[in-house]
Amino acid sequence: MVHSFLLIGQSNMAGRGVIGSVAPIENPRLYVSRNARWQPMFVPVNPDRPFSGISLAESFADAYSRDHDVDVGLIPCADGGTSLAQWAPGGLLYDHALMQARLARRTSVLRGILWHQGESDCSQEASAVYAEKLCELIRRLRHDLEMPEIPVVLGALGDFLKEYDEGTRRYYPVINAALRQVAETQAATAFAPADGLSAKPDHLHFDAKSLREFGLRYYAAYRTVEPPADAEPITGRENGFARTQMEQL
């Protein structure tokens, strides 16, 4: 049975690492959801833009697959440039991610949610309410998925943002403090640090090498809140459907 993960947030979750600048991940047990079916993983995993590239989800999925000896499916729903307000419950991004997660649960066991977002909320006003709004987003996702204890991993923003566009992201430390606060106060929620990771020349996006490392940090954080292997029982019909789909690939 596939173990799946929902990918949400903005461009650094979608991935902007330059394809070909790091060695490809060779693991035939990794899949990506396309049209509600599991396809062998390809890059870019989350093609939200024509310039999408390497994603942190690739190394996360590879580490999880090898440690658990299972197939891993990624559910890409991240969208570059989006604010936390655009991810509010009832909005298009939220409803799309919820629909994709629900569809994936018909052929997989949903094991976690990976979130990276905040660059678009680095203003004084948005950063001040970020923790409150993120807590509400997590609460609603868990409620609407009927999975109150599903793990959520939150990734820090890169320190290189201080060099971006004449300091227009200068409130990024407030966002990072909010992300850490949410991880420390919400059940089954973990924080992946970004200390020492490097950016592309734009000082906005993690480079491919750092994304590989960031994915491993996400996995290490996930392990601290990982649920038991049998946390979400599935029916035999669903299991059989998933197995049939794998055999068709």
CATH topology name: Rossmann fold
End-to-end Cα distance, whole Å, is 15 Å
Q: Sheet bearing the most strands, described?
A: 7 strands, mixed
Q: What's the helical proportion of residues?
A: 25-40%
Query: What global shape is seen?
Result: globular
CATH architecture: 3-Layer(aba) Sandwich
Order of helices and strands: EHEEHEHEHHEHEHH
The helix tally amounts to 8
CATH class: Alpha Beta
* Strand segment count: 7
What structural category do the secondary elements indicate? alpha/beta
Strand order of the largest sheet: 3-2-4-1-5-6-7
Radius of gyration computed on alpha carbons: 17 Å
Low-pLDDT sequence parts: 233-244
Percent of sequence in beta strands: 15-25%
CATH homologous superfamily grouping: SGNH hydrolase
Number of domains: 1
Q: Averaging pLDDT over every residue, what do you get? A: 93
Structure description:
The chain is of the alpha/beta class. The chain has one domain (2-248): 3-Layer(aba) Sandwich (Rossmann fold), CATH 3.40.50. The chain is 38% helix and 16% strand. The chain is built from 8 helices and 7 strands, in the order βαββαβαβααβαβαα. Strands 3-2-4-1-5-6-7 form a 7-stranded mixed sheet, sandwiched between helices. Strand 2 and strand 3 form a beta hairpin. Helix 5 packs across helix 6. The longest helix has 16 residues, at 130-145. The two termini are 15 Å apart.
Question: Can I get a quick summary?
Answer:
By secondary structure, the protein is of the alpha/beta class.
